[in-house]
Amino acid sequence: MRLEELVRRLGSRYDVERWWPAESPWEIMVGAILVQRTAWENATMVLDDLRARGLLEVDAIDDLPLERLERLVRPAGFYRQKARSIKAMAAHLRGAHRSDPLGLLSKHPGSARKELLSLPGVGKETADAILLFAGRRPRFIAAAYVSRVLSRTGLFASQDYDEVQRYMEARLEPDPSTYARCYALMVQHARSTCRTRPLCDNCVLMDACAFTGRTGREGCLR
DNA sequence: ACCCAGGTGGCCC
DNA sequence: GGGCCACATGGG
């Protein structure tokens, strides 16, 4: 099976139109930190709380004492690291871009990515998520779930971030909407199958996994 | 009492 | 460059 075929099948199964709710670039940047290794619901909880308190602004975060932010971030887990990262991002934007995220996001994607990666708590995946969802730049997010789907379907076996990203970017239209949709579909699929059973939903429903064509545990995506 | 969740960075070899 | 680990809360 080719990637195109996989994406087509996933597209008929899942609705990922509202995968990342439409928010301002700064909210997406904060959300990208909050959601690291965390259920989206927990990250949104913090996001909603910050917004309700009028604290979802670059300057407000920069002015907020670290201990206060830590308390607010707690429900999203890793709260000390995340509070520090969010504050560092706010301080950087204020100091280098007049508190305007677009100052960073509208730069040449390569240098914007480098700049993001220099911030604490921002690795490749978070940088690419920010570039894609907040900056609408065509950077494919090579999340662990993406690697898992690719390897379990036999399309591409690498777990290396850069290799997986190159694989995807070489086969998709270099368009932010396409990247976002494919990423969301693959993550959604990897997450929604085989939570507790040896067989994933697809295997159970159709004898052989609809995506791998194989039966049993090896046929599953996790 | 486990396991998992839309990663990152530090340390070690 | 890879392997291991801490980081932490909330839900199943």
Written overview of the protein:
There is one protein chain. This protein has 222 residues and is mainly α. The chain folds into two domains: 25-134, Endonuclease III, domain 1 (Orthogonal Bundle); 147-219, no CATH class. Helix content is 61%, strand content 0%. The longest helix is centred in the middle third of the chain and has 19 residues, at 79-97. It is globular, with a radius of gyration of 19 Å. It starts with a helix and ends in a 16-residue tail after the last helix. Residues 195-208 have low confidence and may be disordered.
Largest β-sheet summary? none
Could you spell the SSE succession in H and E letters?
Answer: HHHHHHHHHHHHH
| CATH class membership of the largest domain | Mainly Alpha
Strand percent estimate = under 5%
Tell me how many strands there are.
0
- CATH homology-level superfamily of the largest domain: Hypothetical protein, domain 2
- The CATH architecture designation of the largest domain is Orthogonal Bundle
Low-confidence stretches: 195-208
CATH fold-level topology of the largest domain: Endonuclease III, domain 1
What structural class is derived from the secondary structure elements? mainly alpha
Shape: globular
| Overall helicity | 55-70%
Number of helices: 13
Mean pLDDT across the residues is 89
CA-based gyration radius: 19 Å
How far the N terminus sits from the C terminus, by CA atoms, comes to: 18 Å
How many separate domains make up the residues? 2
